[in-house]
Amino acid sequence: MNEVSYSAHISNGKSALNSKGRLSGVAKHNLRKYRSKEYDRENIVLLFGSTNLMRDVKKVYQDTFSEALEQYNQKQTRADRRIDDYFEHLSGKNQDMAVEIIFQCGDKDFWEDVFMETDKEKQNKENICKVYDTLLEQLQKEMPDFKVANAVVHFDEASPHMHVVGVPIGRGFKRGLETKVSKRSVFTPKTLENILQNSLRQTASVEMLIHFGVLVKDKQKGKNYDLTVAEYKVQQETKRLEMVAGFLEEKQDRLFNANQRLEQAEKEVSEAERRLSDTKTEIIGAEEDLIQIKTEGREMKQKLMAEQEEIRQENLSLKTDTLILHSDKERLLRDVRKATDEKEQIQVKKEGFLEDIGVLDKEFEKRLDFINVLDKLKALFYKLLSMIPLVREFAKFVEEKKDIRAASPYGYTPLGRLLREYRTSLPQHDRLVTFPEIASWQTSTGEVVPVYEDYNGRGTEYRLAGFWNVQKEQAVKVSEIREEIMPENRICTLELAEVYVKAVESFMEDMEPEECTRENRPMYQRQNEEYIQGR
């Protein structure tokens, strides 16, 4: 079975993250925070943290050292010995603020063979991320005092690899903070050997076997595979300097070397001039050498100055792009706030419309119930109207002081049926009945109703026996009020139903135009249809 290489490199020496500048440089390289033809921001995958590595590291500081920092400051009696910000405090101490580990499984040749199948490029990248994600998880499990702040996978270099930046934590210190940043406490020879080179190597081997069908080579004896990040980048021959300042520093070093060479050349010229007295041939040769050295120096200086100007122009371009991005961000924020305000206004209007519809629905339901009641009353009144001729017939019998025959050989007459329905017996006199709900008369003694005797007890014949005072609840003789029992003094209760019916009809006629006007509006038509469907 094929085997591939494995390496885990930690930052050390010149690549140590011992200042904010170094940490910022790593952030720019790892997250592609600069323009470059070789590197592509779209070909990196963030596994842990955010696109702001500096903020991720500061968060680890805040979560890990805030309690120890507070305890330390409480013990200090002098204000100048207190530490306000532990991150800023370490940035000026020239000691490791964080540590970077670079993991790589497989070399350039292996991955070129893998990515030859272009139709599986997406799947291959996903599998690579799974391998490194498992490595990252195992690293956090086996080295809990190495708090990972940010992890990213690069696909835009010779071989896919993972950059992990974290903070090493030491505990139990007697001087300074009890818990502090300590690379020496975490990355011991035992840790490097047992975890980075053995345990994680085995994890990488299992993952590569699962996803790519190959194993990781065993560690070779006699070789130190814990190289520094700087050595790793030289070994890969594909890394570029991590930020624009690095380019400038390189050019300045080359210019310095050229100046040294120029100074050396001038010394050689002086030596050649001193020897002019020896031989003319040597003088001519020395002059030629001097001219050549000066020419090379001028050409080198001009070339370095041109490269420096190019870098300066690139810096200006980066600043301009940054200003444009800030402007676009502000514009987008204003658009978002405007859209949010409009959404809130629409929601308020929607709630108002829903509330109005609810009120209208309740009002409409009440009106429908009221109309139903009016329809029932109208039907009842029409029924009462059909009784009015019988009421008038009864009143005529009473005013003429005649007896009433309420039956025929075929049964009760219509008046007989009316009298049976509305008769009321006097207390303790079952055969003496009155009809107060049919009609009464207003006399000098008060309102009276006729008292009839149910002659045979079957309600077929009634004889006028006298009158009954409604207010005083006492009997009145016929002879006392005979002349007052006349149509002008008649109070017919059922006859008033005709007046009530006309009043109801008039009210209904007045209300119908208003209801028709409202119901013709689109909103009310739709509401009425929905209400009827609901019922």
What does this structure look like?
The protein has 535 residues and is of the alpha+beta class. It has 3 domains: 238 residues, 2-Layer Sandwich (BirA Bifunctional Protein, domain 2); 117 residues; 106 residues, no CATH class. Helices cover 57% and strands 16% of the residues. It contains 15 helices and 18 strands. Strands 9, 12, 13, 14, 15, 16, 17 and 18 form an 8-stranded antiparallel sheet that branches. Strands 2, 3, 4, 5, 6 and 7 form a 6-stranded antiparallel sheet that branches. A hairpin with a 4-residue loop joins strand 16 and strand 17. Helix 9 runs antiparallel to helix 10 and helix 10 packs antiparallel against helix 14. The longest helix has 106 residues. 21% of the residues are buried. About 4% of the residues have low confidence.
Helix tally equals 15
Q: How many domains make up the coordinates?
A: 3
Q: Class of the largest domain in CATH? A: Alpha Beta
The CATH topology name of the largest domain reads BirA Bifunctional Protein, domain 2
Which helices and strands appear, and what pairs or packs with what?
Elements: E1 3-4, E2 6-10, H1 20-30, E3 44-48, H2 53-75, H3 86-91, E4 99-105, H4 108-114, H5 121-142, E5 146-154, E6 161-170, E7 180-181, H6 183-186, H7 189-212, E8 215-216, H8 229-236, H9 244-274, H10 280-385, H11 388-399, E9 404-405, E10 407-408, E11 411-412, H12 414-422, E12 424-426, E13 429-434, E14 440-443, E15 446-454, E16 461-469, E17 474-476, H13 478-481, E18 490-491, H14 496-519, H15 522-534
Parallel strand pairs: 1-8
Antiparallel strand pairs: 2-4, 3-5, 4-6, 5-6, 6-7, 9-16, 10-11, 12-13, 13-15, 14-15, 14-18, 15-16, 16-17
Helix pairs in contact: 5-7, 9-10, 10-14
